[in-house]
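Structure first, sequence second, as always.
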């Protein structure tokens, strides 16, 4: 699914109106009906306080109020602003309104403590901070205990740039039209957006397909075509032979998790290079993997010959011993194929920035936010962080996976945000699982970017299935591994 800029979204509306053809006021009716269908299916409180501005977002609010009133909801309407200055479509729906509204000039709204507030003051076209009386109304709404649901975007939030000012609605949920906004993908904005869902309002799919964008939202229909069916006569040799370089004394759990995840993701053969003290642990817990012990007992001090492996993953539980740092440098100076790099391998590179220049092109880096900060330095806001992500991927020709809710996958100018996963995955070992999964996919012959997209989506989907089985609080990283087959089943059935 594409994430379009605000200019693209406005053009899309205009194209739909021109070519369907449909009037803008009828398109507003269609969008508001889609919102109401979502609202009726998901919200069970029958009392609603609608707070509208005087632009087209406010016009949506008036239509929503009229529809909900016709469905036997108890609806009160508050309008903020001068009605005479309203947009054309706002005024058209003002004339159709069957509810006597409360029009605010300098006073604050009357809000029933038991009602759901629907926010329709400002839409996605807002480009300057909310001030004056509107700001006071927003701050008043935020001070209430009512559930708040925003229409298209929380009032005061900018869709694709840093929001200014402090007057932004803090919604519990946002129902957006057709396509998500870039702001919804960024952690800083969760306090405003809450949970969100995009509802289809019938905008032109032909025009959407023609628009070039740098941002995408990964869904199952994006991933399913990428998954290659197994050939009838495939065998362990044709399904890839991967190498994991993982573990140190006291951190062999990371090695076990990454190895099990690689095997569950479909790799044909797996060799795991571990400290000598970890050999028995690996052989007893992951019998399907071959162990390649290091000469050192407690940490990795040398690199094996790597030419025969179809993919190499390195980092989980590695530690940062001086001989491990030296060994990683030697690997980077001699290897030519793309690597999958995580955890302590990333931390070593952060502390020795000259190693960045040695990473083979198309390698996949999988930092969490703190590891990413060590690589690139601090950022002023999430949009600045996103720019740093893109620039790092472009400069070194890498695929970078910035982990978190809506994990971002950057390759050159394009960023893919993930739709699967849940907060229960925010536990030790989840990243080790992802490293193993992506290494497995690269070993099986997937191109690095496709391996990243499949791996991240599959990892999150397995986590969602685990959360259903064990609850977000009760699940652990091993549960994600156990659910990889179920995730495959869901994707390919």
């Amino acid at each position: 699914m594409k994430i379009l800029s605000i200019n693209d979204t406005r053009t899309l509306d205009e194209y739909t109106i021109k070519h369907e053809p449909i009037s803008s006021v009828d398109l507003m009716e269609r969008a508001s009906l889609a919102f109401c269908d979502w609202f009726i299916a998901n919200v069970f409180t029958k009392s609603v306080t609608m707070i509208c501005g005087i632009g087209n977002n406010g016009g949506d609010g008036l239509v929503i109020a009229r529809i909900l009133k016709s469905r036997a909801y108890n609806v009160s309407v508050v309008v903020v602003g001068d009605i005479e200055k309203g947009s054309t479509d706002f005024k058209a729906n003002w004339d159709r309104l069957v509810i006597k509204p409360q029009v605010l000039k300098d006073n604050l709204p009357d809000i029933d403590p038991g009602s759901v507030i629907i926010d329709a003051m400002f839409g996605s076209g807002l480009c300057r901070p909310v001030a004056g009386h509107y700001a006071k109304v927003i701050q008043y709404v935020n001070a209430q205990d009512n559930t708040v649901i925003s229409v298209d975007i929380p009032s005061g939030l900018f869709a694709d740039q840093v929001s200014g000012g402090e007057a932004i609605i803090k919604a519990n949920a946002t129902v957006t039209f057709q396509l998500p906004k870039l702001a919804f993908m960024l952690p800083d904005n969760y306090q405003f957006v809450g949970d969100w869902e995009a509802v289809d309002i019938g905008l032109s799919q032909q025009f959407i397909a023609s628009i070039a964008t740098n941002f995408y939202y990964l869904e199952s229909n994006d991933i399913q075509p990428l998954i290659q069916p197994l050939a009838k006569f495939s065998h362990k040799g044709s399904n890839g032979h991967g190498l994991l370089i993982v573990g140190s004394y006291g951190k062999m759990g990371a090695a076990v998790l990454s190895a099990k995840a690689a095997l569950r993701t479909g790799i044909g053969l797996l060799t795991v290079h571990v400290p000598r003290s970890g050999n028995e642990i690996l052989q007893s817990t992951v019998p399907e993997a071959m162990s390649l012990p290091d000469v050192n007992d407690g940490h990795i001090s040398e690199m094996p010959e790597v030419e025969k492996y179809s993919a190499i993953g390195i980092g989980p539980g590695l530690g940062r011993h001086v001989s491990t740092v030296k060994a990683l440098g030697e690997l980077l100076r001699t290897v030519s194929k793309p690597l999958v790099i995580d955890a302590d391998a990333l931390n070593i590179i952060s502390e020795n920035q000259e190693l960045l220049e040695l990473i083979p092109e198309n390698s996949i880096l999988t930092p969490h936010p703190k590891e990413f900060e060590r690589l690139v330095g601090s950022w002023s806001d999430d949009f600045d962080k996103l720019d740093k992500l893109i620039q790092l991927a472009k400069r070194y020709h890498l695929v970078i996976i910035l982990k978190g809710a809506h994990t971002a996958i950057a390759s050159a100018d394009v960023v893919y945000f993930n739709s699967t996963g849940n907060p229960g995955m925010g536990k030790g070992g989840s990243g080790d699982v992802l490293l193993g999964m992506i290494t497995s996919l690269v070993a099986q012959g997937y191109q690095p970017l496709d391996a990243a997209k499949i791996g991240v989506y599959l990892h999150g989907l397995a986590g969602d299935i685990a959360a259903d089985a064990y609850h977000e609080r009760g699940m652990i990283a091993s549960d994600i591994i156990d659910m990889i087959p179920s995730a495959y089943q869901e994707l390919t059935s």
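Margin note: The first helix runs from residue 6 to 19.
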